[in-house]
Amino acid sequence: MGVQVHELVGAVHEAAWLPWAVQYFFLVAISVTALLLSLPAFAFGREDMVAQGRLALMTAVTTGITAPIALLADLHQPFRFWEFFVYTHKTSWMAWGAWIVPSYVGLTLAFAWAVHRPGFAALGRGEWRYARLFRWLSLGGESNAFARPLGIAAGIAAIGILTYTGTEVMVVRARPLWNTPFLPLQFAATGFVGALGVMLVLERSLIRNVALEARLNRLLAVALAVVGALGIAWYGVAISGISPRHTQALASVAGFPVWHRIVYWAGLAVAIPFALALLAPRRSGWITGLIAIHAAWMFRWTVFMGGQAVPKVGSGLYDAMMPTGLTGLMGVIGTFGLWLFLFIAYTTFMPWDEAQLPEGDTPDTPARPARSV
Amino acid sequence: MDTTRRGFFGAIGQVTIGAAATVAGATSAAEAASEDGHVPHWGMVVDLRKCIGCQACTVACIMENHVPEDAFRTHVSVYELVKDGHDPAMVMLPRLCNHCDDPPCIPVCPVEATFKAENGEVLVDADKCVGCAYCVQACPYDARFINHETQTADKCTFCFHRTQSGLLPACVETCVGGARNFGDLNDPGSEVATLLRENEVSVLRPEMHTNPNVYYIGLDDVLQGRVAGEAAYHPEMPAEVTHHGEGL
Questions:
Q1: To probe the interface with B, which of A17, A18, A80 has the most B CB atoms within 10 Å?
Q2: Which sequence ranges form a coiled-coil region, renumbered to this chain (chain B) (predicted)?
């Protein structure tokens, strides 16, 4: 029986999760994956990974501070954030996230402090304007042996972030595009893509080490291959019909030209940096890095804003593909502005390029009588 | 118990209009739950054969509940259906919160601001809601929204403030054709229970297994879930959505 349906009167629903949410998921994924990329050097003592670890740690800290601010801004009642900790609802992944996020940020900051402590101590020994500040930051010592356990704890919290952010969205059965076990894996894989993209851009602008550029490009190619494989697997499951919810998800968007363009766009955003990273790993860092950042951001924009544009009961697409007005755009501009500010502050005031492997399991050295003022 | 609009009019001969609340109030939740231990379970049966799409329910709800201009707690979707090339048929579909027995909006709420009341209503404690909109995402019926005046989640309450006083929900009270019927599903003698017994009824999105308490008489299968058809209003992307065909 052929049925044609024309909606004559219907309500249009706005996106309830705003671009702030896109920014949060983008930044926190970059932070946790960058943190994981810093662990080989600063938690497990791999000396050949120190240069990579420095960039990774800087990325993890700056995005890790910015992300929760974007998350808070997405609450319509931000001053009630304390209720997350007073009325924790155990069945809600968001409630668990409220505990995991501050744990992760705290542990990451403690880990970064431990890694940089010898640098703080060195800066505090001189006779210059901010020496007193760095002596205070070093807490009167320079041992960083505890960086290892702090790094491992931060890494566990990072895995907690990847788990909760992916599952929080995946469990929403009302949105077929979100309700897929592929989503947490896609968030993680595109998080690595974004983190490596940021690290490539930082490497090009701060270090200019061709060997490091080639290594980061190779890692990026692996991450992009995983993203591509996950995308193909999702499409295969959807088209095969073995999973009704995946088939329903594909059917809900397959007829719309705007989604065709998104698919082509996503394909190019994966294929182009993948090819460049493999073919010219020593001279493509700028372009592969920027495209990788764009790809990680675009994936989340498509998932959240595009996903909310698909009606649950109505016809067509809701007008949620683009945020309206300055309010929507401020979520994007504001968080990127804060992130940029933190990068400038980090590279200006932190001894990031002096970060070294943690000491062995030696006890803390006693505080040195370093003060001379 | 008789909490339909028709039943209400039947009582007019006995009491004044001003006292109508008292008539319906005889079955208010508080009283019904007393003594014999009977607890009403509110539900709605929408007889689509009687709905004329006048939107009186939509307006009554907005006026009763001070719903902001850019949102609806209930509205009537109107569709034109053409089957096998026959003459088009106009079909109405009143939509509202289904006050599900297994509501997906409740487990996701991070602060337990949304809850199921004793008589089955799914409610939001606006003083507790943080406005995270997770429940808005989880609702399979698009029945929730963020109220930009209160900055909290908002939805149909089955007019809780009215039913507590023994009144009908505003949409039922104002329904011109008597399409909306409201009452106690636990009471075999109620009109809604009778309608469920005597008619073939459907619910929206049964595949979500939410056990809704809003039932429809005469619901076309193509309108049960997401309606795959041409949309009514898309000012931003008109060229892209007017000629699409859904499905693989």
A1: A80
A2: none
Do B112 and A93 make contact, defined as CB atoms within 8 angstroms? no
**Residue-wise DSSP of B179-222:** -EEEEETT-TTSHHHHHHHHS-EE-S-GGG----SEEEES--GG
Token pair 């005889």: residue:
B26
Distance (Å) of CA A89 to CA A21, A68, B60, B120, B216? 21, 20, 35, 20, 33
Nearest to A153 by CA among A102, A117, A107: A107
Per-residue pLDDT tens over the stretch A33-59: 999 999 999 999 999 999 999 999 999
Say yes or no for a CB contact (<8 Å) between A3 and B222.
Answer: yes
List all residues of chain A from 177 to 196 with a beta carbon under 8 Å from chain B: 178
Q: Report the pLDDT value the prediction gives residue A321, as an integer from 0 to 100.
A: 47
Q: Domain boundaries in chain A?
A: 16-171+326-355, 192-322
**What integer pLDDT is reported at residue B232 of this predicted model?**
76
Among B197, B192, B199, smallest CA distance to B27 is for B192
How close does chain B come to A70, measured CA to CA in Å?
13
Distance from CA of B154 to the nearest CA of A (A): 12
What ipTM was predicted for this assembly?
A: 0.92
Q: Which chain A residues are Cβ-neighbours of B238 within 8 angstroms?
A: none
Instruction: Kindly list the residues from chain B whose CB atom is less than 8 angstroms away from the CB atom of residue A88.
Output: 110-111
CA A92 to CA A75: how far, in whole Å? Answer: 16
Upper half-sphere CA count for residue A195 (Cβ side, 13 Å)? 33
Whether this model's pTM surpasses 0.80: yes
pLDDT at position B11: 37
pLDDT attached to residue A2: 81
Q: Which residue in the set B70, B131, B223 is minimally distant from A77, CB to CB?
A: B131
Q: Which residue has the tokens 């592929």?
A: A182
DSSP A367: P
Structure tokens at A72: 């808070």
Q: Which of A77, A171, A256 sits opposite B241 (nearest CB)?
A: A256
> How far is the first Cα of chain B from the last one, in angstroms, to the nearest whole number?
49
- Residue among B151, B152, B229 minimizing CB distance to A5: B229
* Residue of A1, A4, A263 to mutate, testing the B interface (most B Cβ within 10 Å of its Cβ): A4
Report pLDDT for A300: 97
Nearest to A164 by CA among B152, B210, B139, B108: B108
Q: What is the DSSP string of B62-80?
A: HHHHT--TT--SSEEEEEE
Amino acid at B52: I
DSSP-derived pairing of the beta strands B42-47 and B214-217: parallel
pLDDT at A91: 97
CATH code of B5-184+194-223, in short, is 3.30.70.20
Instruction: For chain A, list residues with pLDDT below 70.
Output: 1, 319-327, 361-373
User: The tokens of B235 are what?
Assistant: 């000012």
